[in-house]
Amino acid sequence: MVDVLSQNEIDALLAALSSGEMDAEELKKEETQKKVRAYDFKRATRFSKDHIRSLTRIHENFARFLTTYFSAQLRTFVQINVVHVDQLPYDEFIRSIPKMTILNIFEASPLEGRMVLEVHPNIAFAMLDRLLGGTGTVPSKINALTEIETIIMERVFSKALDSFQEAWRTVIDMEPRLETLETNPQFMQIVSPNETIALVSLSTKIGDTSGMINLCIPHVVLEPIMPRLSIHHQFLSQKKSRAAEEIDALQERVRKATLPISAELGTSYITIQDFLGLGPGDVISLDKPLGEGLQIRVGGKLKYLGSPGTVKGKLAVQITDIISEGVEEHDE
């Protein structure tokens, strides 16, 4: 918005210039001086606001799908919501999560690279307790997962990736696959420490237990499909999708449309007096020889030639030739 000075402000400015309190040359220098803004290369901005909005929308669907999935698996109240979507260096993400946590490292073909679904221990052990017949309580002391517990967790979160696939279906068809499950962040190095990632934080509540599920998606993984995350691209895609659906619906209606079909034995011209005098047993001579094909019309237009006959005691016409498109019909 352009600032508009009042008359009193204009008078005060002119008075200051006249008295020498302000220098016009200094004002010009200030206007031409370049504005400098600090930039932190460790926190490089790779995702635009448009990208962040798209990621938020996608993972709001992801949260709804996860809520449905875990509610069915755990048979208890589950509520998952997106808290925020942010971008930060990978090293900062590693330092922000607990030393003992559940790290589901997965790939999503055809995207190249790995992503991480980090589940807070409170949430993971509440799930584990429910799956093993408990009430969903968290142990006072969290120990490392046993082999059986690890297998159970892998199966649960491997199926949870189906929700990730469904949420991204509007952007890209992918096939997520759980690669491994880790509990120590120091053993997980999927990208360089300074690589920018998109961090999707999901607040999770299972019964009376609350915690966070964090989804880490490196920028290098999403880079090939970044243009698809723009609102403009999604609008065009939706428009094309609607146009394709309308065309399919129109074609389906055309296929179901009914058209009259008739086979002409021939034509003849008689007087009205002869027509009024017709009775059973009378014969009308037609202008078409016996061996010449019958004209078969579809919707009043000549389309086929055929020969008369019978099928199972009923009159029928066998198509012997197809009239090419564009052939003009000539009256004799």
Keywords for this entry:
332 residues, alpha+beta, six-stranded antiparallel beta sheet, four-stranded antiparallel beta sheet, 25% strand, elongated
List the helices and strands and how they pair.
Layout: H1 7-19, H2 24-32, H3 49-74, E1 78-89, H4 90-96, E2 102-109, E3 114-119, H5 121-131, H6 147-167, E4 175-182, E5 196-206, E6 209-218, H7 219-222, H8 231-256, E7 261-264, H9 272-276, E8 294-298, E9 301-311, E10 314-322
Antiparallel strand pairs: 1-5, 2-3, 2-4, 3-6, 5-6, 7-8, 8-9, 9-10
Cα gyration radius (Å): 38 Å
Low-confidence stretches: none
Task: State the helical fraction.
Answer: 25-40%
User: Mind summarizing the main beta sheet?
Assistant: 6 strands, antiparallel
**N-to-C SSE string, H for helix and E for strand:** HHHEHEEHHEEEHHEHEEE
What best-fitting shape do the alpha-carbon axes yield? elongated
Ends apart, CA distance between termini = 80 Å
Tally of separate helices: 9
Strand segment tally: 10
Strand order of the largest sheet: 1-5-6-3-2-4
Strand content: 25-35%
Structural class: alpha+beta
Arithmetic mean pLDDT: 83
Q: How does this structure look, described?
A:
Strands 1-5-6-3-2-4 form a 6-stranded antiparallel β-sheet. A 4-stranded antiparallel β-sheet has the order 7-8-9-10, with no helix packed on it. The longest helix has 26 residues, at 49-74. α3 (49-74) crosses α6 (147-167). The mean pLDDT is 83. It is built from 9 helices and 10 strands. 37% of the residues lie in helices and 25% in strands. The chain has helices at residues 7-19, 24-32, 49-74, 90-96, 121-131, 147-167, 219-222, 231-256, 272-276, and strands spanning 78-89, 102-109, 114-119, 175-182, 196-206, 209-218, 261-264, 294-298, 301-311, 314-322. The chain has 332 residues and is of the alpha+beta class. The radius of gyration is 38 Å and the shape is elongated. The relative contact order is 0.12.
